[in-house]
Amino acid sequence: MRKEKDCLENLSQFTEVHVVLGNEACDLDSMVSSLLHAFSIYKTLLSVPGKPAAIIPVFNIPKEDFCLRTEAVFLFRRYLLDSSFFIFVDDVDLENLLETGKLQLILVDHNILAKAQKHLDVAVFEILDHHKDQWPANLKVRKNIEPVGSCCTLVAEKLLALDLIDGQMSGLLLGTILLDTVNLDPRAGRATDRDRDIVKQLQEKFPLAINELYRSVSTAKFDVSALSTLDLLRKDYKALPTVENKDLCVGISSVSGLSLSDFFSRTLVHHSISEYCQASSLDVLIIMFLYFVENLDDPPSRQIAVCGPHEAAKSKIAEHLSTSGELKLKLNDERFQNCFVYDQDNIVASRKVVFPLVLDIIKNRF
Questions:
Q1: Mean pLDDT, the chain, as a whole number?
Q2: Residue 1: pLDDT above 70?
Q3: What total number of domains does the chain contain?
Q4: Number of other CB atoms surrounding residue 285 within 10 Å
Q5: Could you list the residue range(s) of the whole structural domain that residue 281 is in?
């Protein structure tokens, strides 16, 4: 990481700058994927003569938001990574790199750029991801998009093939994959055979207590007691892309560790939701809740709230989500001011499922 930081400070020396960029929610999967995929690219390019190129992994959040990613803070400390060497989106001038023709953008853990970064899509030349493919068909890029439980599974496959993994990398990858797949629990419906195979391979090379690792990382993720309501809403947030001829701004916040009741019992919670919508120019904010009723050995529970100032759009999105059948939503018994709230019986449907579903509603129902 020290080398990447040195490259950042001397970008004028390079004719190409390869930026490995995770998604705007910047969860643990995005962070670890960007770091380790950048490492594999660096090692690969070392053996190829030609133009000097910088390879920079970038966390797609402001530096001040890193502390909100409690599971990432925990796992990086556990494996002795110095966060002072991390590169955040406000550390690098992507606009200048684009204008000077140096930017070579690699997307990890997403395949559609955030609204504020949409203009950078002309610089994208590679995608490594596990979400539904929504990349524009007219833009030709090298894509590896596979429906696995964690993007880190795809990163690990490449690192193992190149024989580049050490114990530190293995721990980071395992911690992330186990968190994303709920410890490979089949009841959660997140893990695939490829995820299980990678965990097995990593375990064989660098044995560790995976149940303890999963519990430790999960405990760190679900401990949100020190976060304000605004922090919870921006901790794991994704804005839906702008749809042509649709003047509607929608975003999805994922809140881990709290139920609907816990969240809405917070002091001035509706004021915080309104404040967040106003600051983010949102018409509709969808909040997805993931929590464990008893303990981490049980399958998780999910709930959804559809909030925001645009009453008609909020009502229409809530109606279509509740009748789509894919999420298996049931109207929650409680009522919270100005929000539609549901219990979600399909616990497999994470934001990875809800995001394209909402995007389709905006495209075809408005």
A1: 93
A2: no
A3: 2
A4: 26
A5: 229-365
